[in-house]
Amino acid sequence: MCGIVGYKGNKNAQEILTNGLSCLEYRGYDSSGIAYFINNKIKIEKAIGQIKNLKNKINYKEKSNLGIGHTRWATHGKVNLDNCHPHQVGKITLVHNGIIENYGEIKKKLQQFGYEFYGETDTEVACALIDYNYKKTSNMLKAIKKSINTFIGSYAFLILCSDECDKLYATRNNSPLIVALNNEETFLASDVPAILNYTNKYYLLDNKDIVKIDEKINFYDENLKQVTKKIKKYEIENINISKGKYKHYMLKEINEIDDVVRKTVAPFIIDENTFQSKFNFLSKFEKIEIVACGSAYHAGLIGKYLIEKYSDVNIDINIASEYRYKKHKFNCKTLVIIISQSGETADSLAALRIAKENNAKTLGIVNVYESSIAREADDVIYTQAGPEVAVATTKAYVSQVAIFSLIAMYFKSKNESIKNDLKDLKNLPEKIRNILNKDFQKFAKLIYKQNDVFFIGRQIDYALCMEGSLKLKEISYIHSEAYAAGELKHGSISLIDNNTVVIAINTDKDISLKTISNIKEVKSRGAYVIYLTNDKNIKEKFYDKLILIDNISPLVSPMLAIIPLQLISYYVANLKKCNIDKPKNLAKSVTVE
Ligand code: G6P
C-alpha cells in the first residue's frame, strides 16, 4: 500500500508534502519520510510511526520548492529508519508504493557491480538499479526506462536526481499515481485526497508512463515517445473530514450509517411501492461471480445468500487473492462483481482484469469515485458511504450490503411482491438510529479481558459472524473466530470452556431452532452466551445476555444486525485503549498483492 506525494511549485514543499502524507496516512503508518532540495542539495528526514512524528522533525523554515514524501506500510524489511523511504543510492533518491518481485535477483547483480545495501527493502534495490542505469546513460529518462524494463511487479515511483535540482520524475505500473496541477504548481500523489486542498485538476498515468516535471509537465510512454494527456476534474466537493464530537472516526462513521443507507438506496426507489429497475441487465446472466477482500468479501457473502434465495442464478463468492489463481470457466453469461470500498485493492483489481481479459462482463460496487476498479469495470454502482477514514470499515460495508439487498429485491420482484421489503428498507435508517442510541458498553465490559471470542450463526447470520469477528480482531486484537453454528462440534468446540464468550446470532426464523440447539451445546460446556436475535418470543433461557433487534424483512435485516457487533468491537477496543482508527499492522487501501 503506502502513500506517496510529490511537489514542485512556489510554496513550501515540506509543508505540502507532510500535509499530503497526513491525508494518505490511511494507506500505511509504520514510518514516513520526505526528501527535498535545499540549496541544490537533497535533504532527507524520516521518522518511525505516525506522520506527526515526522512533522516534529522538520524545519519548515528552510526554503524548498521541490520534494517527495512517503508513508509506509512495511512489506519488505522491519519497521526501522533504514527501511523507511525515501531511499537514496548514489545520485538517485526515491519513494515507492508497490512491490518489486524480482528484487532479490537484481540485488545480487548489483552487488557484483559493487553496490552495498543498508536495508532490506525492494525499494532500495530499485533505487540502486536506476542509479546504475543513470551512471551508464547520464540520462534520467533512459535510466528509468531501462530500469522499468527490468522490474517485475507493481510500482509507483517518485524520483529525484542529485544532478537535476529543478526536476521531478515519476512512473507507475499497477499502483495508483495521479499528477495534479494548479497554475505553476504540480502535485503527485497516490490518491486524490492528498491534493484536494490545492486543486481538483489532475492527469491519470497509464502503466509504464514516465513523467518529467520541470517548467512544465512532460509525459512519455514506455518507448519514451512524448504523449499528451487529458486533464480530469474531480467533481466531488472537498469535504472537510473531521471527527466532530466523536472520540474516533470509527464511532463517527458507525453513527453515519443510517444516513449512508438512506443515500445508497435512494436512487433505486421511486416510491413506497415501486422499485427503480436499474438492475434489468442482471437478467441476462446465468452465473454471477462475486469477488472481494476483507469486509467487502463478507458483504459479498451476504449478497450470495440473498440473491440465491430469490433467483436461479448460480452465485459464486471468492476471496480475490484466491480467485486470481483458480481455473476459470467464464462464458458470455457470466457476470463478475467486484466489491471494493477503496476501488484500489490490488487483488480485487487483478481479479477484475482477469475477468475482462476473458471477456466476462464486470460490475464494480465501489465507494471511491474514479478509483481504478470504478474506471476499469464495464459498469459501476457507487455506494454512497462518503469518505471513510477509520481503517476498519463500518459504513462502507453496510452500504455494500445495501446494494446486494437491492439486487436481491430486484430478483424477488420478478415473482413476488416486494412491498413489505421496500417498506422495511425505507424505515431502516430510523431503526438503525434506535440501535445507535442504545448502550453497548455493557457488552464490551464482558469481553475486553477475554483472550478468545467465538461467533456462531447459520447462513446470513454466519456471514454476519464473520464480519463481527473480523471487526473485533482488527481493532481490539482479541483472537476471535466465526463458525457456522453447526460446524463447531466438528473440532473447535474443544476450545469452549467455562466463561468462553460466544456471540450467537439468530435472525432467520426458518433455521432458528437448529441454531438454538448449537447454542445449547456451547452453553452446556460452560460458555457465556451473548444472544443476538430478532425473536421477541423466546421461550427458554439458553443464553446469558440478550441483544434484541427489530424483526424486519430478511432482505434488510443484515444491515441492522451488524450494528451491535460493530459497536461492541468499538467499545471493547476503547476499553483496551487501542489505536482504534489505525490498528497495528493494517492499512485501509491494500495496494499490494
Ligand atoms: C483492508 C481494509 C478492510 C477492507 C479490505 C478490502 O484490509 O482494512 O477494511 O475490507 O482491505 O478493501 P476494499 O477497499 O477493497 O474494500
General description of the model:
The chain has 593 residues and is an alpha/beta fold. It has 3 domains: 3-233, Aminohydrolase, N-terminal nucleophile (Ntn) domain (Glutamine Phosphoribosylpyrophosphate, subunit 1, domain 1, 4-Layer Sandwich), CATH 3.60.20.10; 243-436, Rossmann fold, CATH 3.40.50; 438-581, 3-Layer(aba) Sandwich (Rossmann fold), CATH 3.40.50. Helices cover 34% and strands 24% of the residues. It has 17 helices and 27 strands. It has an 8-stranded antiparallel sheet. The longest helix is centred in the last third of the chain and has 19 residues, at 395-413. It is globular and about 80 Å long. The protein starts with a strand and ends in an 18-residue tail after the last helix. The mean pLDDT is 93. The structure holds 6-O-phosphono-alpha-D-glucopyranose.
